[in-house]
Give the backbone structure.
Amino acid sequence: MAAGGGAARRCWRSGAGLVQAVRGVCGSGRATAALRAEELAERLRKSEEQQREIPKDPRQRWLRELTALSQQLQQVHPNVLAKILKERTVYQNEEIVVIDKPYGLPVHGGPGIKNCIADVLPILAKMLENMKADPLHLCHRLDKETTGVMVLARSKEAAEKIRLLFKTRQVEKIYWAVVLGDPDPVEGVVEIPIVEKEVQSHQSHYKMTLAPNYRLCPEDGKVVRIRRNRSAESAVTRYRRLAAASACSLLELQPITGVKHQIRVHLAYGLGCPILGDHKYSHWSKLAPQKLPELTLRRLKLEQSKARHLPLHLHAHRLCLPLGQPLDFVCKPPLFFQKTLRKLELDIPKD
């Protein structure tokens, strides 16, 4: 009896062990899946940390900063963006508000644009004055990639008055740009009409381009007047070189007219000196990163494959507004612009 009971216990134990073994086998799939999920979560966590991690190599850190420039302002809440613009206010009175526009922030909305200046003007007005303040009004525009002086109006009447000053060319605008090459002559006026055209390539797109009223006769080299393109707009840009080094130049520019992308087109196609970081107008028939001279790459400590990260180096430096008495506003170039000037050994003029 005792022997039989022992056998029964052994049999029960072995059965229990078998049940545990079966449970272990059945549970191993769930355990493995859970382990894999944990491993995947850990990998994702490490990947996010690596993305947030600041590279130790100064060159890589600089590139990371450049890449993030146009993304960061698109990811913030509109209230946060309005607060950023408030902190960048350089002047205000009962008629106008002047801000230092940051890089990568569009003035108007459009496809794929989450944040723009126009959308946060009501919030900015309340932050600057009070909760009952009327929305601010746009008076002119700057390209998304252009930084610097921008004027806003506190009322529709003030906005219309300032827009008229821009339209009648009474506003003096001074820009700074870092360009590739050295303009010849080093000071002058580019007066060539501009028109928008479709670029026929494997990826068709539209660009502004020159529509000159004259051409060189191939037979004798004489300048011959040609029929004017009716779609073209008159465009005039004054320029002068402020500094030159590292196969680049720092130019001061005064657009007399206000045609879309005027400065970029006149510099790239008129003078053959595209703006540093202007990947759109460094080529005509293709969409590709700007090709940089070897000396420029060395000074920037940059590889050509990373040139696509370079931002447009065009800054609205100064604006003179004749409202009763002339109002003169100046904004320093952004930090990335100043770093580039130092790397290229281009001396910043003393105002």
Observations:
- The first strand starts at residue 89 and ends at 92.
